[in-house]
Design brief:
Length: 687
Amino acid sequence: MVSFKGDSTISCSLLSLISEQVSQTKIDLKKCKIICKPAHSPEKSFDSQYFQHQYSVHHPHPGLNNRPNLLMDIPVQHTEKSINQFKWQQELLMMRNTNQLDETTPVYNLSNHGIMQLFELREQQRLSTATSFMKKIEDFKEVSRRSDEEECLRMKQELEERLVPKRESQVDVEMIIQRLQVEARKRFQQEEDQIDQKLKEITSIQEKELQEDMKKKTLELHIAEAKRRKGISSSKLESLLKFLDESVTSCQERDSFLQTVQMKLDRVTALKTQFQVVVNNVNHEDPLNSAIRSENIVKQIEDLVEVIRDDIAKNNAIVEEKNALSKRQQPQSALPSSAVMPITSSAVKQEHQNDQLGCLEKKTCDSNGGDEDLDFVRREDLVVYSQLQAELRQYEANTVAFSGDLSLKTLRFELQKAVLHPVNEISDQSGQHLQDKLDRLRSLLQGNAVHVGSRMVRATEHPGGLEYCTNLLARRLVAQGEDQVNVNPKAAFPIAAIITELWLEFPVFGRLVLAHFYRQCPYLVPYYLPQQEGQSNEDYYKSLGYRYSSGKVEQQPTYLKRMSGVVRLYAAVLISLPRRNQPHPHGLEHAWRYLAALLNLSPRNDITAAILVEFLTVAGYAMSKEYGKQFQKLLHLICTEYFTMIRNVTPKGSGGGPVTRLEEFLHESITKGGISPPAGQLSPRFW
């Protein structure tokens, strides 16, 4: 028995019967054009080859299912029905050969119709599998074809991009339109900018023309003002010279007296010549400058004429008093004409009343009470000192309203910064640096607007502002001697250069500086202030320049160091060289006067030696060059007689620091044959 997959079985006899029925079937091979050849023929059909292949593969050994296939060896002529039966037969054999039929399959229940349906179902499955497989092949071919087309198109585009210019697509057109729009906007903006630039240039040209017109008109006004002021200065100079001639003419014992004031007369002549040069010089850029310089020169001549007049008046008073005394006395007791009588108490009182001086301490020279001498100050120096202090007090009184107005606090603060910032920055860093500080201070005193941080401030914005700035500047410059020069001695020379230049241009400022020098250090007069009756020790020491802290007076070395700084700054002013060969407003002639006056007074402990060594260290070299042998005689007098007087007033065991320094300085000067130039002095070409 052979088993089939299903619920029925079939016997081998049934298979034989089926084979006989098939062999008996009449098939017209010519009509069907299908010939079944023997198994050994090499021209087997595709189906027979296929089935034989399957049979040999799956069943290589003989058995029940390995019987010879007689049907495949008989040539048969098929019809369509016979072909189906033949296929069924072959399929049945394949099912048997592939073990799809086994001995448990009941073949007797499987009818021919069922077997045909089974075969047709199997055929449909095979065809469906083949169709699906072919469809997949076709899909694969289609995908491959499309991929090939896309790759080809891509390569074609690459070649076109490389070899053929790209055609303008719609995107390219939009990009071109955007680019053209951007370019159009840029051109429009450029045209707008060009128009704005043209307008700015036109506006700038108009402003420049307007400024030039204003500058031209201002220059014309300045020229007219300068001419007017020069005319006034010339008239004033003529009247001063006329007054001087009259004073000299009225001088008694003129020949002997003129020798004492010949230096001052020569100075007046030099200033007159300088005035003529300045007046004839026309500065088209700054015409007022020459007018200001001419006024300064006239002011200096006026001061000299006033001093000479006072000297002449004093000389005449002395001569008249001498003549009156000679008439009252016997001829044998008459004094020689060349003698100079001491100043009487009545003459001192008369000068005291004329000059409105304060109360003076006097020392009696002899017991008869006829003549008195001033041991602490020369009378002429006391006059100058009193006048300067009176002017300073009046100047400060004029600024009280401005200083005390609370509504002007901001303005005062800005003006203080405008003064203090340049003053604190003065140094010998370079000529340009020093010039910048001078220009800022000069502009402030001229009443021009100056920069203070991000603001512009003007001293003339309020009445009293200019006077406030002028006095503040003079006081702060003098205070630099105490604060800066005593620490850095070389700092005296750039500060002195600024003071000298401003003094030339602003005479009032110069007199304020001198007044502050005298107030800060009265030894510069020279004036040894005596203690007045009823005056406390604190007030007295403060008048001498001492500082008090918590009710205690400062130590003597500190005081001497501060006073030495002030003296050094004052001496630096005396030897400072004005630029453009201008006459010095307070030059070496005042250095000679001061030194001679100091030596005519009795020395004091410590302070005399301190100020003398500082003054000679700074001004000694210039005075030696200017006065030659006369200065050498003066220096010899200091080394011999005056130094002995200083030693006598120095307490024993006090250390004598200033005295020792003076002794070393004098010894070095004698050894080297002269005084060395001061360290740090500015060269004439520094700026």
